[in-house]
Amino acid sequence: MSALWRINLWVCGFFALVTCACTALLMHQALADVERELQSAEAVVHYLSETAARDPASLQPRLTASLRHVRVHWLGPDETLPAPEQDGLDAWLGRLLFAQARHSAQVLDLADGRRVAIAVDPRDEIDEVWDSLQQLLGVCALALALSLLTIRWAVRRGMGVLDELLLALQHVCSGRLNVRLRGAGVPEAQQLAQHFNRMTDALEQARTDNTRLTQTLLAVQEQERTRLAQTLHDDLGQYLAGIRAQVCLLPLIAHQPATLARTVQLLEEHCEHLQQGFRELVHDLYPVALQHLPMAEAFAMLVTQWRASHGIDCQLHVSQALPPLSPGHKTHLYRLLQEALTNIVRHADASQVHVRLQHRGARLRLWVRDNGQGAQHPQRPGVGLHSMYERARCLGGELKIVSHPGKGWALALDMPAEAL
Is the pTM of this model over 0.85? Predict the structure, then answer.
């Protein structure tokens, strides 16, 4: 059932209740009025009966024809009074209003030989009540028709906006994000169109960003694989080839102590370089320090290595008592700081960096600030910033990044200190 039909049913039900209430009130008032009218009519009937008994000539048909609420019926010698109607709305309304049999006729045999029946006549009251009911029903019907027409006109205008919105949403569900609503009509429709257009703009921009980020992630993945392959082939592979060649020379120079000693020394140096290369490669792939060191010491090691690699002064302040975190949360927090420091090297042009990791109550806060060039309007987030926001979401926290020209960048992460 459509919304228009439901509204019409509710309105019809409301008008039906109002009509029934008004009808009940009208009938209640009619009963009181009828009671008074019948009492007056009965007094008139008794008066006419007494008058006709004393002076039959005073009771003339032309005088009694226009009496209200009193019926004077002249009868023939053998004629009987006709029975009242038992069917029809008038009869039903008469039985409702005149439950007591007050309209029984009095048949009089006058001295001049005429016969007459005098009785209370309820037809005038029935006509009055029936006319009032008809007027009430007519007014209610007219008001209901006008209300339904007004509602139909108003709902149709609103339904037109909803139909247009539904069609636009179907286009959005099918992947067509370039659909827009017309900003015309009533203010509510204009606001709806404005918010819908903003939503589709955001969805279209998000899809564009996702496409661009997916392409960037694929490119980064290929770069990482290429770098890994070059490291294994050009660096570690060369050391392994040199070690193998020197091992093959060992049987030939076994009788030459000086040459053997130099070869053994070269083997030790190659093995040390090989071990260092593997250690750096593994550290890039996963922070092994998190498995063996507390979080504060792992952060200190990361800051020390970063400061030594890039020559930027970096001060680290960590609270004394940090809450125990799950391995996954420790990894996200470590990588987030690592990505923040990488972005400072790439974009900030800073000479000093401050890092704080504070535990206050049930919250853990990471704060990173540099004294670089900053920016008035931050650039559109790339892979690095998106990864940071995603890690903050995984940590259940809120990440804020602010920047001002000439005052550097500031990163603030506020997260719950989830204990193991």
Answer: no
